[in-house]
Amino acid sequence: MTCLSLRKVLGVMSVFSVIVFAVLVGLTGSTDLSISSAHAQSAGNVPGGTLGNVGDPELWRFARRGGCGTVSIPDKSAGCLVQSDGDVLRALKNGIMSQFGGWLMLAMVVVLGLFYAFRGRIMIDGGPAGETIERFNGLERFAHWLSATSFIVLALTGLNVLYGRYILMPILGQDAFAALTYYGKLSHNYIGFSFMLGVVMMFVLWVRDNIPNKHDLTWLAAAGGLFTKGVHPPSKRFNAGQKFIFWYVVIAGIWMTVSGLALLFPLELQSLSGIISLFNFFGLGQGGELTQLQQTQVALLSHGLSGLFFIAVIIGHIYIGSVGMEGAIDAVGSGQVDRKWAQDHHDLWVAEMDEKQTVAEKAQPAE
Q: DSSP readout, 85-127?
């Protein structure tokens, strides 16, 4: 097409555009098409007062921030066009919580590494005696390992949800990682119940031996002798450090159970409503009630954050019960510990056991 022909086409199009514009002005009586459109839609009672393809910034800003309108149906959440809490949840989970959890566990590993480098392994003073004493019976060891193995599976599968896409997926590939995460989620959901059972069993078996007493203050004042060789403050069956682990596992286990069940059954259980009401009663909350969806979101954040703290604490527990202290692993292994180890760390308990043994022997009839 020549340049002259192109000019003719453009000229015809321009004339046509002017004619169309004139017709529209004649029909509407105004050159402001947006105002005409607004009048037309207002006459039809358009919901929200929107202007068709002309956006209403204030309306969408209100909706984007989670603002809700009024509806006549029982489900008042239907008045919310956008559930913006989901974006906040994703930002916290993938941002602050993930970074905090990574630094927390790294800090725990570094601290334990430095402790081992400067303090070394806590050895039995004078070496093992070669004589053993029963520390835990079969039922107690079963309860411990039921909780321990369940916790390890729960920790690994939970960490995979939080960090797996950054660490494992580049190594395994998307398909293998997807399969691993799917079956990991299933195991996480079901093995959680065995962890609950183990915590209940440990509580019933050991609660009476984990009541704080005056000897715990002495143990804490000496830091349990962890930083000084040859120092062993008096202790009964469980020292102050072990009592801390016990009560932490019980309390954190209860909270992980509550938040976990709220995630497993989000529409059947509203487990956080009472806690929110308690916060509101003391003036610590924002007032009002959380919806079921909001409760699920709060449960998800609290479950993940509590799990990260739980893992960090258990890493320290595993260290001191294995490579950190000679003879400690035997307590939950065979259940029999070296008598010298027991005297170093639980001398009052050994004295009680010896006294019971003496009384039992005297009670036996002479042959």
A: HHHHHHHIIIIIIHHHHHHHHHHHHHHHHHHHHHH--BPPTT-
